[in-house]
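Researcher: Here's a chain I'd like modeled. Treat it as a single chain, no partners, no ligands.
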Amino acid sequence: MNNVMGLITTNYSSEHFSKLADIRPIATLPIGGRYRMVDFPLSNLVHSGIRTVGVTSAYRYRSLIDHLGAGKEWSLSRKDDGLYILPGSAYGMKRFQGKFLLRDLINNRPFLDRATEDYVIVSASNKIYNIDFHQAVDQHKENSAEITMLCKEVANADLKQGHFLDVDRDGNVVGLSDVATSGIAAWFMDCFIINRETLLNLMEWYSNMDYIDMMEIITDNIGRLKITTYNFSGYVGAVDSTYDYMQCSMDMLDPKVRKELFNSSKMIFTKVQDAPPAKYLEGCKVSNSIVSSGAIIGGTVENSILSRNVKIGAGAVVKNCVILQRCVIEPGAVLENVICDKFAYVSENVRLSGTKYSPLVIEKNQKL
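Model: Modeled as a single isolated chain. Structure tokens:
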């Protein structure tokens, strides 16, 4: 898709994340044992043949820059086009709801002005799914749409966060709200296709209101612009809170979800970190878990995700947990419904537990 460019926004946070998002943007939250959230939209764009991708950096940008580098792992380290890290506005992390801040776009207008592509796929980085954008872009062109919003029809919509679309019989968006009007609703996937000219016009029209979000602008222009939808039928996981993060992590233990997300023909790329294979010591027990390279397991691990170089001591029990990189769980410790951030240390015989709906979060570098 030589006529399409990508733009990924990362300059936002959530008041529902507590300690996990205090030191990093949601985009660089580790997930699935070896990935970061931003890997999903970035890999989707690359697999769709898009070779020009801009990423608006977050207020706390260190982890984002460290992870993305020059884009080599995504084949975006190129002489022409490739990956562009774009500066984000300083106040972005303080705005909890807006994922597409207009000021971030205006500050980077030269990136859009100099582009030659006619269409822009704009995506947040808080949702995980595996998609080929070809069909969505083709539908956008066939409908002569100015904006196409990707959505998924979901049941129990009242239990989900985000935006919901009111759609007429022809697939046109006639309304947008933060609350679902019924149990089944079109759930916005925080991703839309927009004509570059339309995007530049909107930036110009609302330049004096650069503190607002693109979703407010789209809502304001329903009826004036041709705004359609593209329905996606695959798995979509949303990460807007600590609870969501835990649920998405547990979803990955489902073989069907794993097969769809990590399809061999559309791999999710990530930063390469070499490590030896996981080591399972005599007497350990591991069931229904994802164990990453470099891990050393001496205890019991059930329904959990272990990132690289995690150590589980003999006699330790880890159930329904997410243990991030280089955590150490000493012998005899018991953890259930716990998220351990990177480099956390749990001493011998310590017992820690949260609940399914309120997992306990151990901060990065914390020792217990």
